[in-house]
Amino acid sequence: MKDALFQTIQLGEHALKNRIVMPPMTRSRASQPGNSANDMMAEYYGQRAQAGLIVAEGTQISAMGQGYAWTPGIYSPEQIAGWKKTTEAVHANGGVVFAQLWHVGRVTHPENIGGEQPISSSAIKAENVKVFIDDGSNAPGFVDVVEPRAMTKADIEQVIGEYRQAALNAIEAGFDGIELHAANGYLINQFIDSEANDRTDEYGGSIENRLRFLSEVVAAMTDAIGADKVGVRLAPFTSLNGTVDATPVETYTAAAAMLNTHNIVYLHIAEVDWDDAPETPAEFKVAVREAFKGVLIYAGKYDAVKGGQAINDGLADMIGFGRPFVSNPDLPSRIKNGYPLVAHDPATLFGGDEKGLTDYPEYSE
């Protein structure tokens, strides 16, 4: 079954060596001040270039787009130069790497965005959501998010422009493409999901209206760098960071069909992966497969057998393995050979130094 993971696949202009994806995972180790990617991060991604595709951690497109302390940006010359270290390291090891472009919207705190009030689709505070700030210690200091202000038409135009420029910056930094983060309760998700969007203009109300911002951002980015270099990540059934949709099957099947009209290179679906989480309905996966003709990536509670089965069933083309990649830099080799996997240390996920980032060894007998 796991052999399906080791078939080659074409992704735009890239012939990928396997169907294993290292999905984006926030590690919060960008250099300060300036939130620039660094040598330590380059080593981390370079170590994991056995993946068919790496999607680097969420990267804010502007100072206002930052949700957490120490996350990298891609809007300054220094940040672009920092990311070149990562793309060069991955390419030197034969890998393919996309940048994940991120605006958190309301999932932040003024402390992380220069004292500004966060922006969102609507002036609705995300309930029971915390983010971490740099409180002067080396550990993340968690605080509650605040109420955002609703974006004006001018704000929407500005942010679309920031996404477009970030896509161009990513290509300048050497990335093979970009993934638009439209999942997990961040800005674009705040427009999509009905319970986070109470707008009465053309960006709110109907499903078509709530998908408009996503469509306009994708159009701007595909125009800038080409549709064969643009993927999109969605999270239809998660309630992460307080976004909930009343009709997720209908909304996200429509999103897949709309994204298909933009000819994007892949659609990446984040499934709920916490304990006792509901399974993604099989009929939804069938509907998405029918609606979207590009490469389909799923990530969630997959192991090699379940991932291979999804590919053999025709419901997925590639599978993301998140946490296992943190502590198993040679994960594809371990899967292929049946080597044991190492568990990651949760205490070193966010912030800190090389410990828990680049010091997990490859398998040896």
Describe this structure in words.
31% of the residues lie in helices and 16% in strands. By secondary structure, the chain is α/β, with parallel strands linked by helices. The strands form 4 sheets. An 8-stranded parallel β-barrel has the order 3-4-5-10-11-12-13-14, surrounded by 5 helices. A two-stranded antiparallel sheet has the order 1-2. Helix 3 runs parallel beside helix 6 and helix 7 (248-261) runs parallel beside helix 8. The longest helix has 20 residues, at 153-172. The protein is globular.
Q: What class, by secondary structure content?
A: alpha/beta
How many β-strand stretches?
14
Overall pLDDT = 96
- Fraction of residues in helix: 25-40%
Gist of the model:
The protein has 365 residues and is an alpha/beta fold. It has eleven helices and 14 strands. The strands form four sheets. Strands 3-4-5-10-11-12-13-14 form an eight-stranded parallel barrel, surrounded by five helices. The protein has a two-stranded antiparallel sheet with strand order 1-2. A two-stranded parallel sheet has the order 6-9.
